[in-house]
Amino acid sequence: MKIMQYFYIIMSFAGIFMLGCSIPKYDPHKEYGFRIDNADSKLQNPPENKARIYTYRIGTPFGFITNYYISIFNTDDFDAKKPNWANAQFLAKSHISSAYFTDIDPGHITLYAKTESRHTFSFEAKANTIYCVESSIRIGFFIYNPNFSLVPQERCIKYVSKYLKDNSQERWEKDFERFKKKYLKSK
Predict the structure, then answer these.
(1) What are residue 129's DSSP bridge partners?
(2) In terms of pLDDT, which residue wins out, 171 or 19?
C-alpha cells in the first residue's frame, strides 16, 4: 500500500513539473512573424532587409541551473549530429527570466541547442519581420534538455516586455563572447 502512495506522490510532482516546463505547441499552419506598429512597445522592428528574433525564457524554479546556447544554422548545410560551427550564428543563451534579440539575414534557418540531447527547430525567416522564440527545458535522463519553439505575437509581447531589461544586450554580448570561445575557436 505504501508503494502505491509513493508512486502517486512521485507522479503528481512529475505532472506539476511537466506543466512548468511546457511551451505552447507550434502550429505549422499559423503565421508567427509580425511587425510592431506601437511606438510604446519594448519590441522594435528589425533593420531593413533583416529579420529579428526575440528569445526569452520564463522564470520558473524548474531547471534554473540548466542554461544552454541556441545557435542559428543555414538549413541547407546543417547536420544535427555534427554541426559545422564555422557556419553557426549565435542567437542567445537560455537563462531563466531573460529576453534578448538578434538580427539575422532572412532565409530558411535551423535553431539548434544541445545539453544531454539535441533540439532543433526550422522555419523560414522573412525580411522586415519579428519572430519570437520561447525557450524552456524538458526532462532528460541525467540533466534537463533544451526545448524551444516559435510563439505568437501576444505571448511574445507579454513575456519580452516583462524580461527585456536595459542591460539585456550587454548580457547577450558576454554570452556571445563565451559562445565564441567554446564553439568558434577557428574564427
Answers:
(1) 51
(2) 171
Q: Where are the beta strands (DSSP E) in the chain?
A: 51-57, 68-74, 89-94, 98-104, 107-114, 118-125, 129-138, 145-150
Digit-coded pLDDT (tens) for 52-92:
999 999 977 767 788 899 999 987 778 888 888 888 899 99
C-beta atoms surrounding 95 within 10 Å: 19
DSSP 100-119: EEEEE--EEEEEEEESSSEE
User: Phi then psi for 87, rounded to 5 degrees?
Assistant: -100, 10
CA gyration radius for the chain?
A: 18
Q: How many residues does the chain have?
A: 187
Q: First-to-last CA distance in the chain? A: 61
> Closest Cα to residue 53, out of 149, 120, 179, 167?
149
Residue 16 pLDDT > 50, yes or no?
A: no
Q: Which three cell numbers stand for residue 116?
A: 544531454
Task: Say if residue 23's pLDDT is above 50.
Answer: yes
Under 8 Å between Cβ of 57 and 98: yes
